[in-house]
Amino acid sequence: MESVDYLISGEVLISSPDVDPIPRGAVAIRGDTIVAAGPLSELVRRFVAQRTIDRPAGLILPGLINAHTHAAMVLFRGLADDLPLKTWLEDHIFPAEARLTPELVRLGTELACAEMIRCGTTGLVDMYLFEDTVASVIDRVGLRAWLGEGIFDFPSPAFSSGEEALRETERMMEKWRGHPRITITVDPHTPYTCRPELLRRSLEVAEANDALIVIHVAETEWEVEEAMMHHGCSPVRYLDRLSLLGERLLAIHCVNLTEDDISLLAQRKARVVHCPESNLKLGSGIAPVPQLLDAGIIVALGTDGAASNNDLDLLSEMDTAAKLAKGLKRDPTLISASDALSMATTWAARALHREDLGCLRGGARADLVVVDLDQVHLRPCYNPVSLLVYAARSGDVQDVMVAGSMLMEDRRLTTIDEGRLLKDLHKIES
Asked: N or C: which end of the chain has fewer CB within 10 A?
């Protein structure tokens, strides 16, 4: 028999949203890698484990990937609600961010990590400020992350110019290169907060380092009007003129798109990240996800920051994403539960060019979640995928593993001292 570090078993195993769930399934893990996943009866004959975790009522699934957030913005949760994006951002968030320090970002990031782990998130794509501090927190906490310093055409609280933020991006790439869980991205904020020259430089840095580009695109009607006024075309067409539209681009939001935009995104194989709850709350609109999927575009799911959501709960985001298109088009077949889960797992992994994430199979990274099905709102269990998307809550998450390490076991965080964290937060609130 082969020796493994962990054998984790449960009532049912979802290895991937597009594969039939396996009753009484299990996952065998060695180091940071899954050796095998399948029926428990088969795995116990093949492996002897140093640690066995059996959850008789557990639903085992791939770790969720939050494909767009601003983690430390949890510090501004509820600061300015019920406002349109431009007013919210320019009159409230930018002034609040001007007072940020690396220490505040460290505290906010740790709070965000605790929240995300409790919601079953194992990976996140983060664009924010003082991002090297964010990386240090992620490194210590144990999550998987794609991190980029926000690049603007004007001074940010962290850097005096976009060029300086780009130099910081290159420095971080050298510092974190080869890290097993942290990847650095190039993050120009939006087409309208970056000059064409800065966008071109961002592309050069990304291409030189084989990095992803993360940028907010077509989030509001106002943004589209601005692009038409200044460039004579949509934000998507403008990015294409600058050669940014391509496989390395993560286009965030994409709410206000034309048919031509969708066709262009598909032709260039750009990836899209859907943030439904933030878009709804800011009144920005609803992204045309069914049309994007029909065009063959990879769509991932994100929460955005907690200042505009107001949480980082990807389980809730899946539920919203699945229901939005149904109600909007009056068609209950649009965006199935399987599609919604795919956006947070397998499709998110593909958007990040990582075939070894978002699924539970031999050779994949050992990022997984166990949901406790013994809850009154989770019985009976006819279809585990639809139950997860339409009924599960963050409090149902029992265990979280990233890269073969337990970050939460039986609802207890193992890498974050929540008591100390809350005390530190009370100090800045007073």
From this structure: C
